[in-house]
């Protein structure tokens, strides 16, 4: 009886082996089939990182597109984390599958573009005239002479101030510091360090993370007349006398003037950062700073960031579209970009997200300027140079420069040595291409 | 070496009384064995003496010390556990040395003591081994050496031989007895095996249900058990028990009506029973013989053997009378056939009489 | 017949021929193991000899990545940080876990409640815990500095100072892991026969002697096991760093796995990242082998 049962459930060897073989053979078929299903024939697959404060604006843009272009079946996925979209995208590019269209922070797009994995957009968008667009923002999408990445919008940088703390120190919050000397005086005046001991209010909240440390240095570097890279983007330009001057100024603020503590403000940010708690009088602000500061009840305002001896500077930081080379629905993807760059959508997105539109005419639209803060960030954006560190080694360079800046602030290195070390590494990376 | 005295010792776990009012004295140098069926409280009593559990009531004295409230380890007693409780991560040397190390003795002193104890238990060559490498008997000896080395006033042993095989158990029994003689130590030994108790003890303490049933030398318990329990527990195979009733009393003679046998007449009882009183008559199997022999009065009992064990030196017959097991042990080889009725004989003087309460009716 | 052959034949002569049904039942597991473990591991090893970026044509570069790795001061810093983290987490976690286990192995009131409380952090999501701890360490509004200020100590820039940040991460990891150590030690304690404690008490050993001479050595296999899993686990720390410090400040919390992630996904240097991964894999493998060897020798 037992034997009978054993025999009955015992698969024959051949049946088993052929079954296993069939299973193994079908795996790649299944995998590619599912990949194909994702990119189903007439669907425009769109991976978007328009999350957080841009979420409503992004949804409105997609809804408007669906109404205007009913023939295109839009299938969009939202990725909250920048790194998450990048990781998926790298995998997708590797497997020659994935989305037709993406929109995300500009730097990752340049990485893909450097490997010729994106469509050149310069001539592919008939209704978009380059001359109508903000050259500063546009610069972040240009690599190897081509416009591989199209900015939907950008944020710009100014000096965010806490009007209450500034007024209390007897300064005029409507005017803002006009040069570095005044910036320094302001910072010293608003710093509260009772008895020279524990920091109660920092003059300037310098940075929360590596990217902000890098941006702060960039603003000071530009203020001293320098730039990150040479004009042809082939060599670092930040380690020259301008860079050293910028970093020395920063070091003096912390080490000599003690307007803040080294590392002050580093952390997750958002509502919890010291500026939003009234523990810092100034910071390098972007469009994204407004909502949290107001929500935290700060008397928030933005003034332009001063250069060393008068005049202002800024930088912009765009979110860019990119169309994947080899994607099945490039045509529909281009339609979407074209639509998003139209005057109506540029205005609508700017109003909804409070970010600086790429279209110059939209920057002057009265609905856009109706928001006082957005108007101020559009103003500061005009101080940004029409160049960008648009190189695939940017993420690396950002980390290296930020590290150098922090080494100086923590007094582990001198400005010249720290910048030299970073520049040497960046040079090596640029040469490798 | 010291005398151990328990006075009215009781131990309860919640509502359960494990030990009830035990008083006894164990003399200096005596080998006392606590014996009883499982759950009788013999191991509990040992743990109370060791101080591993606190007593609920009463007092314990060792020598002149009242140790009732003293923690274990300060009572100058050593214990050998049923499981040996050797420290598996230590070598034999360290196991034996452990109590001395706890006393912070000097290294040289410890070495000397350990080597002496090890040679006493014949383990001098195994000092570097871990317990896992030793046989059961060797582990047992390590445990004993660990006890010896402390020079305790009292040795406590909790069923130390029960994990050994039969042959080794007999060997170790002799060794322990020998050791006791050499050390002249006071030992309290717990076992459920009456054979161990009989062979090793100077005195046996029979426990049952947390109470002491009888204390005495082995042969006292064998010949003069105070009650049915002790009579049934001591001796192997156990005593045959026959239900009966007092039929008549005439001067010195009590005659009993015994189911399945008939009338049995016994003389020399120290007290007078009542006519009609229920009794139990106890006859040890080894006091039954296949032929009438010796002095009068002889009692003849008919039994049908169900099985026969012929061992050469002895012949053991298993039968039943009125549903009660009835066993006979004959000396030498006897050709007995199972199933055929057999008459066996016994001297009336060797019959134990227990009253309705189970208490022995003593003889003059 | 096949079954009888496979069980009764001498081991040496067992072949695939006789055991095919055993392999048949193992096959699904083997296929999954191959696809999810061996294949990616082999791919990683292969990648480590290339300059693969997934964007540009891939070239075979031989041992270049490894040569670069051993001359990379930033990688050396990451290795140093990882060792700091591993030592910082492993030993306190084991000591605290052991003490908690010994304390809660006694019949103290509320011990079940304490066991649960100590074990709870293990069950929390790492990301959620990291967010909460980032708040705890917040220098101005955070409760930890609030506590320090209240007892008259100066507040500390926990995650902002290169000298403190790693220790702050270590404290959080200990908080999270010592419950695991406690549970494993508790299980180990239950395995120690009560007889040994009683024998030791009778031999005159007191609390400290019993703990050091009986409890600790009797737990040695548990301790080895914990040591190995904690080393292997802490070598791979990533989540807390990703959420709380991103390797900063000044690279002071940049560990091998975080750097590997940055290199591969942040800088698209997958070949170099794969070399880091391979070195880490081999290191962990060595520890695992040492661990298994020791355990096996102890069992024998």
Mean pLDDT of chain C: 85
CATH topology annotation of chain C: MetI-like fold
How many beta strands in the DSSP annotation of chain A? Answer: 14
The CATH homology group name of the largest domain in chain A: Periplasmic binding protein-like II
Give average pLDDT of chain A, whole number. Answer: 86
H/E series of chain C, N to C? HHHHHHHHHHHHHH
Instruction: Write down the overall geometry of chain C.
Output: globular
Instruction: Compute the number of structural domains of chain A.
Output: 2
Could you tell me the CATH topology label of the largest domain in chain A: D-Maltodextrin-Binding Protein, domain 2
What is the radius of gyration of chain A? Answer: 26 Å
Main structural class of chain C: mainly alpha
What's the number of helices of chain C? 14
In words, what does this structure look like?
The complex is a heterotrimer of chains A (433), B (364) and C (300). Chain A is an alpha+beta fold. Helix content of chain A is 47%, strand content 14%. A 6-stranded mixed β-sheet of chain A has the order 2-1-3-13-6-14. Residues 1-40 of chain A have low confidence and may be disordered. Chain B has 364 residues and is of the alpha+beta class. Chain B folds into 2 domains: 4-233, 3-Layer(aba) Sandwich (Rossmann fold); 240-354, Beta Barrel (OB fold (Dihydrolipoamide Acetyltransferase, E2P)). Chain B is built from 8 helices and 20 strands. Chain B has helices at 42-50, 92-102, 107-120, 136-148, 166-183, 194-200, 218-223, 228-233, and strands at 4-13, 16-26, 31-35, 57-62, 65-66, 77-80, 154-158, 186-191, 203-208, 211-216, 240-250, 253-258, 262-267, 278-283, 298-303, 305-310, 314-321, 324-331, 342-347, 352-354. Chain B is elongated. The mean pLDDT of chain B is 89. Chain C has a single domain, classed as MetI-like (MetI-like fold). Chain C has helices at residues 2-8, 16-47, 64-70, 73-105, 111-123, 126-136, 143-150, 165-190, 194-202, 207-218, 220-235, 239-244, 256-266, 270-299. In chain C, 74% of the residues lie in helices and 0% in strands. Chain C has 14 helices and no strands. With 300 residues, chain C is mainly α. At the B-C interface, strand 6 and helix 2 of B face helix 9 and helix 10 of C.
């Amino acid at each position: 009886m037992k034997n009978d049962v054993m025999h009955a459930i015992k698969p024959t060897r051949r049946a088993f082996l052929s079954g296993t073989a069939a299973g193994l053979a079908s795996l790649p078929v299944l995998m590619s089939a599912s990949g194909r299903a994702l990119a189903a024939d007439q669907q425009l697959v769109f991976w978007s990182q328009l999350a957080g404060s841009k979420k409503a604006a992004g949804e409105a843009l997609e809804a408007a597109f669906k109404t205007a272009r009913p023939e295109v079946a839009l299938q969009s996925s939202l990725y909250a984390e920048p790194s998450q979209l990048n990781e998926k995208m790298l995998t997708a590019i590797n497997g020659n599958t994935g989305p037709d269209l993406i929109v995300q922070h500009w730097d990752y797009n340049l990485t893909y573009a450097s490997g010729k994995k994106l469509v050149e957009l310069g001539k592919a968008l008939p209704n978009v005239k380059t001359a109508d667009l903000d050259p500063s923002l546009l610069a972040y999408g240009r690599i190897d002479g081509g416009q591989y990445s199209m900015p939907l919008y950008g944020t710009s940088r100014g000096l965010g101030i806490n009007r209450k703390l500034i007024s209390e120190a007897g300064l005029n919050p409507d005017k803002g510091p006009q040069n570095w000397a005044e910036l320094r005086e302001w910072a010293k005046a608003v710093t509260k360090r009772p008895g020279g001991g524990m920091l109660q209010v920092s003059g300037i909240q310098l940075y929360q993370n590596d990217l902000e440390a890098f941006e702060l240095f960039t603003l000071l570097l530009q203020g001293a007349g320098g730039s990150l890279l040479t004009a042809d983007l082939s060599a670092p330009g930040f380690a020259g006398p301008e860079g050293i001057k910028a970093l020395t100024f920063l070091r003096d603020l912390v080490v000599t003037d003690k307007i803040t503590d080294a590392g002050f403000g580093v952390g997750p940010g958002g509502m919890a950062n010291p500026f939003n708690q009234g523990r810092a009088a100034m910071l390098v602000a972007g469009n994204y700073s407004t909502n949290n500061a107001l929500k935290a009840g700060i008397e928030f305002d933005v003034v332009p960031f001063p250069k060393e001896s008068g005049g202002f500077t800024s930088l912009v930081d765009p979110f860019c579209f990119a169309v994947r080379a080899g994607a099945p629905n490039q045509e529909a993807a281009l339609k979407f970009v074209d639509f998003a760059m139209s005057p109506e959508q540029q205005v609508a997105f700017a109003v909804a997200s409070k970010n600086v539109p790429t279209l110059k005419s939209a920057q002057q639209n009265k609905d856009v300027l109706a928001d006082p803060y957005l108007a101020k960030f559009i103003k500061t954006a005009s101080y940004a140079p029409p160049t960008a560190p648009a190189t695939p080694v940017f993420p690396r360079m950002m980390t290296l420069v930020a590290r150098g800046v922090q080494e100086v602030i923590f007094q582990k290195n001198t400005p010249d040595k720290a910048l030299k070390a970073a520049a040497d590494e960046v040079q090596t990376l640029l040469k490798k291409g | 070496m010291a005398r151990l005295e328990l006075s009215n010792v009781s131990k309860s776990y919640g509502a359960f009384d494990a030990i009830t009012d035990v008083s006894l004295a164990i003399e200096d140098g005596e080998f006392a064995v606590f014996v009883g069926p499982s759950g009788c409280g013999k191991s509990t009593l040992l743990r109370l003496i060791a101080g591993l559990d606190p007593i609920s009531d009463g007092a314990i004295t060792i020598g002149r010390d009242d140790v009732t409230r003293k923690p274990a380890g300060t009572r100058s007693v050593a214990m050998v556990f049923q499981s040996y409780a050797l420290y598996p991560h230590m070598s034999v040397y360290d196991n034996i040395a452990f109590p001395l190390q706890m006393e912070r003795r000097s290294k040289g002193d410890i070495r000397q003591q350990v080597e002496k104890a090890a040679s006493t238990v014949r383990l001098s060559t195994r000092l570097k081994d871990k317990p896992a490498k030793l046989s059961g008997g060797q582990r047992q000896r390590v445990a004993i050496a660990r006890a010896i080395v402390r020079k305790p006033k009292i040795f406590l042993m909790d069923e130390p031989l029960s994990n050994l095989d039969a042959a080794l158990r007999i060997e170790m029994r002799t060794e322990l007895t020998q050791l006791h003689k050499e050390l002249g130590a006071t030992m309290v030994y717990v076992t459920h095996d009456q054979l161990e108790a009989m062979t090793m003890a100077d005195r046996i303490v029979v426990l049952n249900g947390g109470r002491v049933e009888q204390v005495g030398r082995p042969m006292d318990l064998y010949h003069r058990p105070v009650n049915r329990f002790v009579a049934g527990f001591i001796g192997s195979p156990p005593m045959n028990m026959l239900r009966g009733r007092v039929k008549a009393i005439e001067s010195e003679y009590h005659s009993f009506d015994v189911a399945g046998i008939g009338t049995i007449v016994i003389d020399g009882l120290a007290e007078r029973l009542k006519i009609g009183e229920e009794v139990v008559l106890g006859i040890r199997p080894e006091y039954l013989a296949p032929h009438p022999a010796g002095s009068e009065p002889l009692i003849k009992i008919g039994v049908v053997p169900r099985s026969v064990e012929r061992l050469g030196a002895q012949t053991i017959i298993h039968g039943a009378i009125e549903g009660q097991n009835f066993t006979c042990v004959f000396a030498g080889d006897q050709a007995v056939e199972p199933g055929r009725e057999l008459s066996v004989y016994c001297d009336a003087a060797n019959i134990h009489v227990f009253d309705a309460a189970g208490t022995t009716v003593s003889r003059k | 017949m096949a079954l009888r052959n496979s069980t009764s034949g001498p081991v040496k002569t067992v072949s695939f021929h006789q055991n095919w049904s055993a392999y048949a039942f193992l096959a699904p597991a083997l296929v999954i193991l191959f696809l999810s473990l061996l294949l990616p591991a082999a791919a990683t090893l292969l990648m480590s000899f290339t300059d693969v970026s997934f964007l540009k044509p891939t070239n075979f570069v031989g041992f270049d990545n490894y040569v670069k790795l051993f001359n990379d001061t930033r990688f050396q810093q990451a290795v140093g940080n990882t060792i700091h983290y591993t030592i910082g987490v492993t030993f306190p976690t084991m000591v605290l876990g052991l003490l908690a286990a010994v304390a809660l192995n006694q019949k103290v009131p509320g011990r079940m409640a304490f066991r649960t409380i100590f074990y709870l952090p293990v069950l929390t999501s790492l990301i959620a815990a990291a967010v909460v701890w980032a708040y705890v360490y917040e220098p101005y509004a955070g409760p930890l500095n609030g506590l320090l200020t209240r007892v008259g100590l100066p507040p500390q820039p926990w995650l902002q100072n290169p000298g403190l940040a790693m220790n702050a991460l270590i404290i959080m990891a200990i908080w999270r892991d010592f419950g695991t150590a406690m549970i494993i030690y508790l299980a180990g304690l239950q395995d120690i026969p009560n007889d040994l404690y009683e024998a030791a008490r009778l031999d005159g050993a007191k609390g400290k002697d019993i703990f050091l001479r009986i409890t600790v050595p009797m737990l040695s296999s548990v301790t080895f096991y914990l040591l190995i899993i904690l080393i292997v686990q802490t070598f791979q720390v990533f989540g807390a760093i990703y959420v709380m410090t991103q390797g900063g400040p000044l690279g002071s919390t940049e560990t091998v796995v975080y750097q590997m992630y940055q290199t591969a996904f942040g800088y698209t240097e997958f070949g170099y990242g794969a070399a880091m991964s391979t070195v880490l894999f081999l290191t962990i493998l060595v520890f695992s082998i040492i661990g298994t060897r020791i355990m096996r020798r102890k069992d024998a």
